[in-house]
Amino acid sequence: MSIWRLLPPYDDGETARVFHSLDAVFALRGEQVSHDPQSETIRVNIGGTVYYVKRYRRAGKNPLRRWLLRPRVQAEWENLIMFASWGIACPPVAAYGLERRAGLFMRGALITREQAGAVDLARLACEGDPRLRDRAWLAAVIPQVAQIARTIHEHGFTHNDLKWRNLLVDSTPALYLIDCPGAERWPGPFLRYRIVKDLACLDKVAKYQLSRAWRLRFFLAYTGRLRLNANDKRMIRRILRFFEGRE
After folding, report:
1. Is residue 34 part of a domain?
2. Which residue of 12, 86, 181, 207 shows the fewest CB atoms closer than 10 Å?
3. Is 199 a domain residue?
4. Which helix (H) or strand (E) holds 191?
5. What is the domain extent for residue 151?
6. Is 94 a domain residue?
7. Is it true that the peptide bond before 143 is cis, omega within 30 degrees of 0?
8. Measured between alpha carbons, how far is 171 from 75 in angstroms, rounded to an integer?
9. 116-133 pLDDT tens trace
10. Confidence bin at 60 (pLDDT 50/70/90)
């Protein structure tokens, strides 16, 4: 069984010709962006527009994903489309699909359009970008990060890899969320633990790049409150302790 879908407006013209099938997508050559045992990502240019082609040859680290669980490629396209429906800015999905044989996952792919001029926040931190010390820029970006995290968590989901490298910012500055195959819904106490993990992942870099005042502004924007209450203070302590002894 093979599933392959091109989404409008990418289902017409040159993109439809290049991305017309899963076989065609796996035959594509382009600039390699990343590679690991599960997947690889290449960058291709079609008619002046850049696309990221993520190709999976394994369903995921858990062997059950090959048979019973949702493969990571399917989780990633479903999460991107779902997050966009919640109002979270994500790279536009151009095409997606997978192939199974006798119920066994064989391969799959996801294609997204590049956000022109966007760079991930981790790169800004690594390069010591002056925008991270610009008050006006921070005042525009930090509430967007908070709103993304809050929206995901209010729906009972967590990203599970909510790191600076998975947040892109363009010159506007507008923020975009990427790389979310691990995002999933969690019940009760599991959700609370995972929310703390998401926020701790963000703070893992923020504590070296931002002042305590800016980090507090982020948390207040996330909670939607002007002042911390007792529960907020307990949660902040949990966030600060989350990676103790693991860095």
Report:
1. yes
2. 12
3. yes
4. helix 188-209
5. 119-241
6. yes
7. no
8. 29
9. 999 999 999 999 999 999
10. low
pLDDT in tens, 213-234: 999 999 999 999 999 999 999 9
83-105 burial code (b ≥16 CB/10 A, e <16): beeeebbbbbbbbbbbbbeeeeb
The pTM of this model reads 0.92
Domain count, the chain: 2
Q: Which residue type, as a one-letter code, is found at position 233? A: K
131 shares its domain with 180: yes
Contact 31, 43 (CB under 8 A): yes
Contact of 119 with 169, CB cutoff 8 Å? yes
Verify that 54 and 146 share a domain, yes or no: no
Of 203, 227, 201, 197, the residue nearest 215 (C-alpha) = 203
SS3 3: strand
Q: Residue 16 burial (CB < 10 Å; 0-12/13-18/19+)?
A: middle
